[in-house]
Amino acid sequence: EAQVTQNPRYLITVTGKKLTVTCSQNMNHEYMSWYRQDPGLGLRQIYYSMNVEVTDKGDVPEGYKVSRKEKRNFPLILESPSPNQTSLYFCASRVSGRGTNEQFFGPGTRLTVL
Amino acid sequence: DQQVKQNSPSLSVQEGRISILNCDYTNSMFDYFLWYKKYPAEGPTFLISISSIKDKNEDGRFTVFLNKSAKHLSLHIVPSQPGDSAVYFCAATPTGNQFYFGTGTSLTVIP
């Protein structure tokens, strides 16, 4: 089954404790992206990657890091989480090229930073 | 500043009637627009899209209209069904890499 998977689905942590949210897709997509969803703000793009070793900032990259060492994986790293990073996070992927902008989203990771 | 706006947080429609969801944008560089549907505890799923070179795109019960001069797009669902009850997000992109989403409209279709 074609899908985007995220782990963990739920995470409660404390301020300053480094964490990684993993994202993996099995559709051989070149493009991957991370979003956060907050009430009243919709989805906001954090980082995106057009291919292996190619990443760029989205709208709200502060406090986050990403890496793209393999095509299928795109982990999101919070080196020193803060309470304002409490949010619902989504990973997405799509085929590259201008003709197809449809993204496939993972199920989400709900993060709480105390 | 929000470049894509959905000014109606919620909408209720009777089953069988038309649902119209609206979206406004400010960036004239946006050239592709998409609608996503989201159920609770799931990720958004793609619904329909439109390129800026078109003013209408239809897919079954779903039609998206684009008015570039007004920087406005709308999603029409006809006829509405209870299974359409979800949160709908519009999104726009200037490059196919950066995406900007609205705040969402929660649609309730009443049986």
In short:
The complex is a heterodimer of chains A (114) and B (111). Chain A has 114 residues and is mainly beta.
Give the secondary structure arrangement, pairings included.
The complex is a heterodimer of chains A (114) and B (111).
Chain A: E1 4-7, E2 10-13, E3 19-25, E4 31-38, E5 42-51, E6 54-57, E7 65-66, E8 76-78, E9 87-94, E10 104-105, E11 109-113
Chain B: E1 4-5, E2 10-14, E3 19-25, E4 32-38, E5 45-51, E6 56-59, E7 62-67, E8 72-77, E9 86-93, E10 100-101, E11 105-110
Parallel strand pairs in B: 2-11
Antiparallel strand pairs in B: 1-3, 3-8, 4-5, 4-9, 6-7, 7-8, 9-10, 9-11
What are its keywords?
heterodimer; A: 114 residues; mainly beta; 4-stranded antiparallel β-sheet; 11 strands; globular; B: mainly beta
Could you characterize the architecture of this molecule?
The complex is a heterodimer of chains A (114) and B (111). In chain A, strands 2, 4, 5, 6, 9, 10 and 11 form a seven-stranded mixed β-sheet that branches. Chain A is 0% helix and 50% strand. The mean pLDDT of chain A is 95. Chain A contains no helices and eleven strands. Chain A has 114 residues and is mostly beta strands. With 111 residues, chain B is an all-beta fold. Chain B is globular and about 40 Å long. Chain B has strands at residues 4-5, 10-14, 19-25, 32-38, 45-51, 56-59, 62-67, 72-77, 86-93, 100-101, 105-110. In chain B, the strands form two sheets. In chain B, strands 2, 4, 5, 9, 10 and 11 form a six-stranded mixed β-sheet that branches. A five-stranded antiparallel β-sheet of chain B has the order 1-3-8-7-6, with no helix packed on it. The mean pLDDT of chain B is 96. In chain B, β6 (56-59) and β7 form a beta hairpin. The A-B interface holds A 4, 31, 33, 35, 40-45, 48, 50, 56, 58-59, 90, 92, 97-98, 101-108 and B 2, 4, 6, 32, 34, 36, 41-46, 49, 89, 91, 93, 96-104.
